[in-house]
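help with this.
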Amino acid sequence: MQMPFAIAVQKCLSNYTTFSGRAQRSEYWWFILFVLLIVVAAAILDNLLGLTFDEDGDGPIQVVVGLGTFLPMISVSVRRLHDLDRSGWWWWIQLIPLIGFIVFLVFTCTRGTEGPNRFGADPLRSGSGGGGSGGPRFDPADFDEALTPSRVPNVPKD
């Protein structure tokens, strides 16, 4: 089952130093989309405020966003490789010009191994515990329950 956008982002940010366990494809790609959106927003904000360092348009907000998402990106990438039953050391293949990027892209688009592997339980199977990576786990029942109006506190107006 596909993980919702908000849950994927929350899981990746809360597990920013967790390199064990497995990450399903939807978790990985939702987080990639999130990072892309905030990088674009940071670039626009830097340019609107005139906070660029050079002619390329890089600014301090982009630097902060880049530093803040660097470790979570590596972490979710390693967990994505674990879902394919590959070592996290395969992350370094991206350093090979062009070929490395293509190989890594194929890895991240490939369906993970079914059932448990040496890195943990299958994150797509219900009751598997999300691959043992800690942090918030995706359970559709919990997500639906969290959106009911009864969970919203009543705040009196002054």
User: Anything to note?
Assistant: The longest helix spans residues 25-49.
